[in-house]
Amino acid sequence: MEEKIISNTDLRTLIDELLRDGGYRVVAPVAGEPVFRPVSSAAELNLDGRQPPTAMSPKQYFVPRAEPLLYYKRQKGGVELGEPAKDERKTVLLGVKPCDAASGDILAKVYNWDFKDELFNRRRDNTIIIGQLCQYSDEFCFCTSVNLSPSATDGSDLFLVPLDGADWAVRVVTPRGADFLKAFERLLRPGDPDRSKQAEAAVQGPARSFDSEQIRKWVTAHFEHEYWEQPGHVCVGCARCAFICPVCHCFDIVDEDYSYDEGRRMKNWDACQFPTFTLHASGHNPRGDQIHRYRQRINHKFKIYPDRFGPILCTGCGRCSRGCPVGMDLQRVLGEIDAIAG
After folding, report:
1. How many CB atoms lie within 10 A of CB 320?
2. pTM score over 0.90
3. I need a surface site. Which of 45, 138, 217, 264 has the fewest CB within 10 A?
4. End-to-end alpha-carbon separation of the chain, Å?
């Protein structure tokens, strides 16, 4: 993997040039704010890898919370359909921890499975993801248990490793990342892999807390196990976990009328933890209580998605546990399942 060095000053010069001349928006973490958001200058950036993950993941820049699919107008003799405006903005997603950077590839498998989602693919094709070594870990982090690590480059085009207060190593992960850097060669110096490996080795990731493959096998064979009642009785079904997760991707499609004659068809975030998510028009609901809905969440992430696509539908960021209003801890639940399975 090719590597360069850029000073902290030149990295900020690069960002300011992008904002001024490159036709890009730069989306990054900002000190004191819970979300990734577009910045207007490099002075707003917070690239301190010792900070916890933002409260909200940056997945909305691939999958907006709400987006129009088409517009319609009723006329005599039929309905006129209109296409939504195409989002052609180029985006640099900067300072992304590995548990968030990996989400792009995971989501892409869903949105290109039985149908290629043009809206998702256009956004992803127009986005450069610059990942960053994570120097943070708390009791909710478990990236190493889902095949990631603080230095994983999965999903990144470029990857930053802080060398000291003045320099960054820039690892080139994809051809897209290499092409992006060509315009900024004057700001780069030859890399020093030994130096960056030392910086990487100084970061200790969370200890592995469960065996994901053992969990996959157990949930496959124990769909009706009595254990599901324990977390299912605690979960209140608010779905906050799904909305802040970098890889949850459930959505609903609804028609919204402006008036009798006009409206739009929208794709909106949804969640399998809501009682109405699987409610049939007949009134039957195959997941009629929270026990069944919470079981579905674990099954989807650790069996259904891996069976179909390979990776685990979880990046170990810990947001669901930090943000749960009733203290549900996904890592603890998985540890309990692992203990039963062992």
Report:
1. 21
2. yes
3. 138
4. 38
Of 73, 21, 17, which is closest to residue 42 (Cα–Cα)? 17
Residue type, 28: A
Q: For the residues of 27-52, what is the DSSP string, one character each?
A: EEEBTT-SSEEEESSGGGB---TTSP
Cβ neighbours of residue 240 under 8 Å, at least 6 residues apart?
A: 320, 323, 324, 325
- pLDDT tens digits along 299-308: 999 999 999 9
Single-letter code of the amino acid located at 81: L
Separation of CA 115 from chain center: 20
Q: Where do runs of H (alpha helix) occur along the chain?
A: 8-21, 98-101, 103-111, 118-125, 175-181, 193-201, 212-221, 229-234, 240-244, 290-299, 305-309, 319-323, 330-341
Q: Are 319 and 99 in contact (CB under 8 A)?
A: no
- DSSP codes of every residue in 71-97: EEEEETTEEEEEPPPP---EEEEEEE-
Q: Whose CA is closest to 124, among 112, 108, 101?
A: 108
Spans in the chain with pLDDT lower than 70: none
